[in-house]
Design a protein that fits this description.
Elements lengths: L1 E2 H7 L5 H9 L3 E3 L2 E3 L5 E2 L6 E3 L2 E3 L6 E6 L28 E3 L8 E6 L2 H8 L17
Antiparallel strand pairs: 1-4, 2-3, 2-5, 5-6, 7-9, 8-9
Helix pairs in contact: 1-2
Length: 140
């Protein structure tokens, strides 16, 4: 069981804060009942959730390891029209994003996913995940 606003965010409906507004505005139903109270819990895969009449479903988790070439940027969209890492991937129904960033002129391994929990665990300093591991380097 997870909070409804977290479920909506994980499904790509809106951010958690924006999902809270959708809920308090009465635009979300769970099993046919309009929900306006924050903190309501749902069971992914069992609860029938709709937002503004549209069914909300959780995408399957996707994890892609990608060797980013130089000249490609680590962003979902670029207003300047440059090639992004997502342009290198086949079309996917799920919204994907990179875990971390590499400079445009850098190359190396990137994780591309829709798994927000994993991305958070890898990127948040609290979890102490080492980054920038270089081939051939030695630890002192």
């Amino acid at each position: 069981m997870i909070r409804l606003q977290k479920y909506l965010a994980e499904c790509g409906v809106a951010s958690r804060r924006a999902s809270e507004k959708l809920i308090t505005d009465g635009l979300v139903t769970v099993d046919g009942v309009v929900i306006t109270e924050l903190g309501t819990k749902v069971e992914p895969g069992k609860s029938r959730v709709t937002c503004e009449g549209t069914p909300v479903v959780l995408d399957e988790k996707v994890w892609i390891m990608l060797n980013k070439p130089t000249g490609v940027i680590c962003t979902s969209e670029d207003p300047e029209g440059r090639e992004t890492v997502l342009d290198l991937l086949p079309a996917c129904a799920s919204r994907l994003y990179t875990v971390g960033r590499l400079d445009v002129m850098s190359e190396g391994l990137l994780l591309v996913t829709n798994d927000g929990e994993l991305a958070h665990r890898l990127m948040h300093p609290r979890h102490h995940v080492e980054k920038n591991i270089r081939s051939g380097s030695t630890a002192n």
